[in-house]
Amino acid sequence: MSVALQENGNTLPEGYKMTELGPLPEEWQVVKLGEVFHIQQGKALSPASRTGARMRPFLRTANVFWGRIDLSNLDQMHFDEEEEKRLALQPGDLLVCEGGDIGRTAIWQGQISPCFYQNHLHRLRPIRTDAFPLFFMYWMQAAWTLLGIYGGASNKTTIPNLSRSRLSSFSISLPPLPEQRAIAAVLRAVQEAKEATERVIAAARELKKSLMRHLFTYGPVPVDQTDQVPLKDTEIGPIPKHWQVVRLGEVGRVITGKTPPTSIPSYWNGSIPFITPVDLQGNAIRTAQRSITEAGLKFAKPLPKGTVVVSCIGYIGKVGVIDSDVAVTNQQINAVIPSVIHNWFLAYALLHEVDLLKSRARVTTVPILHKSNFERIPIPLPPLSEQQEIARILRAVDEKIRAEEARKEALEALFKTLLHDLMTARRRLPAEVIAQFADTPPTPSVEAQHRCTPDPETKTP
């Protein structure tokens, strides 16, 4: 359910109370973080700790991101027996950045064992049975990134940092345990859906790379038939024997862009896309970040729909295809109006040869691929039917990638909205949903996070 809260704070919905964190449900408590978690800072890295008989992996701030831990680049240092007992991580421990991106929080899920952490991280371990660590990971993210509750909480030194005492004094909300679990489960479900979408995007991009290598070597034939394709060696590598290698200037008219005077306002902010390298993402271009008017078009070089545009100054090799009736580009871009080649095949051929494009650029402070050198770039030229099939296959993959990227953006927006609304109780989960988390434990991994206990030396502050 959604709760409408009065902006002036004078009227509270039934069942709500005013707290130092704003309006909250009457059954929610506001407590200090140090009353709920034992806080332990990690071990300082020193030259002496770089050697020893007990070298162990440890986490740094570079490993801790909002809601996730990256183990791809783990460092090691020596931990003696007492340090291992005191600083070993357990599933359900929260890790909070003391320096760097201050406050950034993630939960340890026992990915490897043993694992330890550096002094620029605080470890938070619950000392109460009514605290669910995963909920408080999300609370920290909301408080720092959306609500501004802890703004200015770092120590004002040359290098800002978050001390243990300041962290311990933070006010936090403490809903009933079933509601903590329910909120965490909802947010985690959205986060997992986004992570799954990211994996699909990564896999689709790898598929595209593999397809491009195959298609520009053997043509549009099944993988199990490549041995039936006679190849020939060329300056751009092996290609089917019946393909040609031609120069870019032979397949279309090459035009370098031109910028209308920026000092004349009437030339700008019209309906005609003004394309710059930032607009080139390997896709169809219908709009651009900037635009010009019909008056401005008189001082530019108009390009028709279907033109292939390529960045040739600074960002070498970014590609797009114009999908509006007319568009223009700035001087960083060379455009090819195709005459004897399929436009999307040409776009993908240039993407495939991006390293060749970069190698032909003149190396100065800013790399430049001049029009004359651009026109001499060698490209493959298959029969038109094969060009069309190659373009069709690769565009289908690109459409899948774009659809998944749109889904990811929607999930990110949903997560941000839910994170804000659930943590401020502007939106509350239905009672029947919360009831499911009263007696029935959540998923095994999340339940393991909640069962964690302080280390034997922990004392309640």
Fill in the keyword field for this structure.
Adenine-n6-DNA-methyltransferase TaqI, Chain A, domain 2; 12 helices; 26 strands; single chain; five-stranded mixed β-sheet; 33% helix; 2 domains; four-stranded antiparallel β-sheet; 461 residues; alpha+beta; 21% strand
Total number of beta strands: 26
By CATH, the topology of the largest domain is Adenine-n6-DNA-methyltransferase TaqI, Chain A, domain 2
**CATH superfamily label of the largest domain:** DNA methylase specificity domains
Q: What's the tally of helices?
A: 12
Number of domains: 2
Q: How would a crystallographer describe the biggest sheet?
A: 5 strands, mixed
Strand content: 15-25%
Notes on the protein architecture:
- The chain is 33% helix and 21% strand.
- By secondary structure, the protein is an alpha+beta fold.
- The chain folds into 2 domains: 16-189 and 415-451, DNA methylase specificity domains (Adenine-n6-DNA-methyltransferase TaqI, Chain A, domain 2); 244-381, Alpha-Beta Complex (Adenine-n6-DNA-methyltransferase TaqI, Chain A, domain 2).
- The protein has a 5-stranded mixed β-sheet with strand order 17-25-22-23-19.
- Strand 1 (16-19) and strand 2 (22-25) form a beta hairpin.
